[in-house]
User: Which sequence fits this backbone?
């Protein structure tokens, strides 16, 4: 898959029509802007000075034409440029989401959801914005060339002075402001800290009030806010002086241009109007020059963002696709043969079609077992088989069509509560909700971001209802009732048993209520099967009691 | 859901005035110096005009002097601008800091009852979105706006000084600009609001899909979710383009204004020079002045909608900051640590009672476990005892109560700072002791990179939910209340974590009166007394052994839970 450079060029190439038109029209706009001070000078020279009314009308007409041209070039050009940027960002964004959600997985390894979301928004936007920068950059170069031609046409020495003087002036301003800028950025980050702390305290407000810590928190916030204010003020001061310095340097530059131009005009080498035009152009030239330095930063940021985007797009897949034909009718016989995977050191057991199997395992073993069953990873050694077919030979999507692994921290999606369940339901939603003890969670509740508006227990029951409603050939549950009270848990255990009758179900849990309804329980210890039996049989083992009943 | 109040325009201005008043001197100095800076800058154009005149009069030696003047103007302008901007920023930032401090103070003292009704989302949105909106305005827009406005006013003044008829000519542009600004704001404000909503929707969809990637894959919803994001993203692109189209039309109308004004000034120059009322140099200066007005004019017009957005944010901040200041903490005589609940009824929605005639007495130092199905009223009872709500009927007597729920929050900052929120003056020894009691000292000292100095919480070292809850229990120990209410404080962890948390909870409430909403029966088994609730009533009450022997609901529950061992 592509590197950052390819991502960047892909974003430009995909919008080449818009970018070309945008660059051409933006250049036209810049040339127009350059001509405005020139025309002011000419109008004064040719019309105001000699008092020629016809000349005045002529030049006002020319000025009007220039204005119409620059205005429309700007309007259409900028629109096309921005559209190229927005569309390219959209395409990058969609590609990232498609990659992250790819059945083969792997893109989110080592990246937090927030970081991935910011790559899909901020970085995608910056990659797209390269189109806008490209348009502005080309227009700035064209404007520079146009001003150069005009200035050199007025007077070669004056033109050279302006053209050679402006870049070092900008460079000097840049040099002077660089340390200020760096300092200001650091200070501003410290300044932003106050907002972050405030948000944090308000976010944990109920927790704070629970222990009566409001006063301590307010005191702490005052101190943070005061420190932040100090930092922000230093940053603002640095920025103010940077502004002042650039202003003074520009003024001195204009003074020098006026001096040389004035002397040339006094000597009769250039006309009065040309002097006015030159001074105006010298000021105007600073625009495209600083645009170029802005373009430079935009391109650098675009490159960095493109590299991050490329990294996600090219992230190695967690599991390869499988070549075997997907299973059509599934009996639901699951067999583990000497599976070694992470903490698992050779686990073998078999689940009969239609059996309800309990598995008791420590967190690491449980995690590895679940990942192997859902083919999120392939075992280092041994194999997991479904109806005698090794999972590693099936496409990950095909595995999940038959085996549903519902994780402990299953996420609910924004939207209606029942929509979550209905989106995957192959059996009656109401039946699944009832079996999961979720029927008295308010129907029709609209869920906020990932179901955060529900309590932990409610969320867990709705997630369980969804898993049951999918009616998978093989259902694997992990700690489905940890946030549920004992009364409801007992009801859920019965409901689970009834609704999964005849379908293979594996429940990885330490809940006695669930284990008690299982046909058999497999006890894992130190990555191996330590024992197998019913809940009642195993309850005699000391290690089982510690794991389950303590 | 009732949102928190938003201040009226008048109240917002009043509170702002109140905050600015102590810094009046700063305000006067800042605006004064910036005015001087802008006025100095205006000398450039007439000086260039003087050069033109000097050339016209063939007097090249004067040019050098004028140029020296130009250089002096540049230096003075640079220095005064820097000083003025510093002062204005100091004013803006200081007022902002006072406002956010007041906001946080009043927000943290909102009654829990009100907060539960409004939801904390609104408050968090104000403290993040609105504070940064206003801060950004203070940082970027305020200095720009002040400078540009001054530049416009003084330039127009300077035009008038050159000749009042130049001013008249320049003002030809004003009606077009005023009309354009109104036209733009009327369309832009709703469009920007729509765009913010679409942006939020896209962000949420992204987090939904990306954050839940494992679940999406498990249920094979990949295409559906990619499609959802693509749809939201396309909608946002469309809205963005509509906004850009509007902004571009806005600029095009401003071009019309620019041309109108410029043509008028040139015509005025022509007439005045022709009539001998002005020199060519003066006409040049006037045209240059007007050309120089373009940039500040556009800046001010563009900043209008920033200012409007910041104003709306400000109103939402003042809505909370304008609440009455919290009084001194009530000095009540410490109770004996008992909890008395008498004939308590409660309803959140009138006509739908959730508690019926609850009587419960908890002796000082007693540990009571509340057991029951969801919806039985356990959490409501716990909240009434903790004082979150006042009961709609009956009385609740309990003082010096702390509440720990399953809501985990690790406060951003070092681990020690997080703990000291509960006890600001606690020694390092006390912190260690509290962590040791909840079984967290080992990981805190050995697994965290900097021990107690490790930055935890948002943006810091991530703690599992079980560890976060251990911290919450350690804070409970440090807050040292007589009565502790734990509402499913162990629910968020998996089975392995639950056991650790149960032990931690047990140690945390040692020596206190405790009301524990238990969802694991082991917690109930070790309590002094078990209270079973159903349908908003207490149905059983007694020790674990008594209730098991009684053969009621609790006994049935326990035998199902413990499997064959007791059956």
Assistant:
């Amino acid at each position: 898959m592509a590197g950052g450079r390819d991502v960047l060029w892909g974003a430009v190439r995909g919008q080449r029509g818009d970018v070309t038109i945008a660059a051409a029209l933006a250049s036209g706009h810049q040339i127009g802007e350059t001509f405005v001070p020139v025309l002011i000078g000419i109008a004064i020279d040719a019309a105001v000075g000699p008092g020629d009314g016809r000349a005045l009308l002529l030049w006002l007409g020319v000025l009007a034409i220039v204005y119409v041209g620059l205005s429309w070039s700007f309007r259409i050009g900028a629109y096309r440029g921005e559209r190229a940027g927005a569309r390219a960002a959209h395409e990058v964004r969609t590609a990232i989401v498609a990659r992250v959600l790819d059945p083969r997985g792997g893109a989110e390894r080592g990246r937090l959801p927030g970081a991935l979301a910011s790559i899909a928004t901020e970085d995608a936007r910056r990659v797209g914005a390269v189109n806008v920068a490209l348009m502005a950059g080309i227009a700035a170069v064209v404007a520079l060339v146009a001003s150069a031609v005009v200035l050199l046409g007025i007077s070669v020495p004056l033109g050279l002075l302006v053209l050679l003087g402006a870049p070092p002036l900008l460079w000097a301003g840049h040099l002077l402001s660089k340390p200020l800028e760096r300092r200001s950025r650091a200070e501003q980050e410290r300044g932003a800290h106050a907002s972050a702390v405030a948000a944090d305290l308000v976010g944990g407000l109920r927790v704070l009030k629970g222990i009566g810590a409001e006063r301590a928190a307010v005191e702490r916030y005052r101190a943070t806010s005061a420190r932040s204010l100090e930092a922000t003020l230093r940053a603002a001061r640095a920025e103010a002086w940077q502004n002042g310095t650039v202003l003074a340097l520009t003024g001195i530059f204009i003074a020098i241009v006026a001096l040389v131009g004035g002397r040339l005009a006094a000597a009769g080498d250039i006309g009065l109007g040309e002097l006015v035009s030159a001074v105006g152009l010298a000021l105007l030239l600073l625009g495209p020059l600083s645009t170029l330095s802005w373009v430079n930063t935009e391109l650098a940021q675009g490159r960095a963002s493109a590299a991050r985007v490329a990294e996600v797009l090219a992230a190695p897949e967690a599991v390869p696709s499988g070549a075997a034909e997907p299973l059509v009718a599934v009996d639901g016989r699951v067999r583990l043969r000497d599976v070694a995977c992470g903490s698992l050191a050779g686990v073998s057991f078999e689940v009969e079609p239609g059996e309800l199997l309990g598995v008791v395992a420590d967190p690491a073993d449980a995690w590895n077992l679940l990942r192997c069953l859902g083919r999120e990873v392939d075992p280092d050694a041994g194999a997991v088989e479904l109806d005698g077919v090794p999972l590693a030979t099936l496409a990950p999507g095909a595995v999940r069509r038959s085996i549903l692994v519902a994780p402990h921290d299953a996420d609910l999606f924004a939207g209606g509560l029942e929509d979550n369940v209905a989106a995957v339901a192959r059996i009656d939603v109401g039946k699944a909700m009832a079996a999961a003890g979720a029927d008295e969670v308010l129907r029709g509740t609209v869920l906020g971001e990932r179901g955060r508006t529900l309590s932990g227990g409610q969320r867990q029951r709705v997630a369980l209802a969804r898993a049951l409603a999918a009616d998978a050939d093989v259902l694997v549950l992990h700690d489905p009732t940890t946030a549920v009270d004992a009364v409801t848990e007992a009801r859920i255990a019965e409901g689970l048993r009834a609704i999964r009758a005849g379908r293979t179900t594996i429940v990885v849990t330490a809940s006695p209520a669930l284990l008690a309804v299982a046909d058999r329980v497999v006890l894992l210890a130190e990555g191996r099967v330590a024992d197998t039996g019913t809940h009642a049989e195993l309850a005699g083992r000391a290690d089982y009691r510690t794991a389950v009943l303590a | 859901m009732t949102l928190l109040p938003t201040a009226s325009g008048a109240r917002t201005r009043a509170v702002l005035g109140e905050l600015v008043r102590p810094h009046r001197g700063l305000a006067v100095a800042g605006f004064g110096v910036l005015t001087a800076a802008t006025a100095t800058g205006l000398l450039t154009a007439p000086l260039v005009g003087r050069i033109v005149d000097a050339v016209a009069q063939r007097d090249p030696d004067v040019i050098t002097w004028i140029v020296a003047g130009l250089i002096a103007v540049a230096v003075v302008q640079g220095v005064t601008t820097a000083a003025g901007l510093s002062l204005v920023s100091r004013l803006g930032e200081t007022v902002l800091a006072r406002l956010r401090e007041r906001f946080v103070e009043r927000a943290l003292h909102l009654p829990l009852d009100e907060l539960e009704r409004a939801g904390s989302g609104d408050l968090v949105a104000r403290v993040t979105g609105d504070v940064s909106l206003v801060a950004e305005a203070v940082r970027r827009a305020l200095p720009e706006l002040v400078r540009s406005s001054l530049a416009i006013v003084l330039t127009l003044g300077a035009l008038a000084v050159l000749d009042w008829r130049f001013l008249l000519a320049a003002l030809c542009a004003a009606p077009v600009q005023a009309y354009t600004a109104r036209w733009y704001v009327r369309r832009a404000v709703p469009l920007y609001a729509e765009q913010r909503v679409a942006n939020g929707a896209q962000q949420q969809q992204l987090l939904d899909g990306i954050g839940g990637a494992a679940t999406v894959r498990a249920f094979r919803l990949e295409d559906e979710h990619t499609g959802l994001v693509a749809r939201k993203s396309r909608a946002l692109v469309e809205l963005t383009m509509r906004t850009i189209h509007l902004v571009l039309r806005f600029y095009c109308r401003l071009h019309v204004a620019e041309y109108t004004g410029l043509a008028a000034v040139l015509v005025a120059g022509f007439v005045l020079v022709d009539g001998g009322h002005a020199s060519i140099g003066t006409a040049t200066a006037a045209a240059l002045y007007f050309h120089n007005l373009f940039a500040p004019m556009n800046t001010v017009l563009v900043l209008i909608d920033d200012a409007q957005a910041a104003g709306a944010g400000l109103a939402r901040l003042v809505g909370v900051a304008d609440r009455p200041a919290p009084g001194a903490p009530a000095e009540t005589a410490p109770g004996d640590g008992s909890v008395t609940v008498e004939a308590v009824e409660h309803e959140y929605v009138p006509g739908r009672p959730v508690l019926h005639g609850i009587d419960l007495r908890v002796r000082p130092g007693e540990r009571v476990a509340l057991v029951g199905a969801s919806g039985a009223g356990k959490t409501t009872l716990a909240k009434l005892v903790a004082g979150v709500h006042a009961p709609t009927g009956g009385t609740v007597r309990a003082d010096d109560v702390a509440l720990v729920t399953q809501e985990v929050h690790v406060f951003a900052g070092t681990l020690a700072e997080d703990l000291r929120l509960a006890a600001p003056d606690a020694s390092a020894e006390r912190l260690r002791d509290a962590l040791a009691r909840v079984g967290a000292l080992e990981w805190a000292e050995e697994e965290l990179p900097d021990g107690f100095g490790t930055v935890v919480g948002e943006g810091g070292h991530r703690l599992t939910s079980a560890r976060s809850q251990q911290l919450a229990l350690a804070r409970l120990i440090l807050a040292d209340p007589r009565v502790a209410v734990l509402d499913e404080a162990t629910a968020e962890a998996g089975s392995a974590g639950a056991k650790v948390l149960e032990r931690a909870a047990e140690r945390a409430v040692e020596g206190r009166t405790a009301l524990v909403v238990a969802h694991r029966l082991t917690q109930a088994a070790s309590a002094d007394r078990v209270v079973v609730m159903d349908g908003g009533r207490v149905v059983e009450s007694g020790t674990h052994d008594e209730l098991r022997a009684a053969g009621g609901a609790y006994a049935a529950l326990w035998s199902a839970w413990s499997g064959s061992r007791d059956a």
Q: What stands out?
A: Chain B touches chain A through 172 residues (CB under 8 Å).
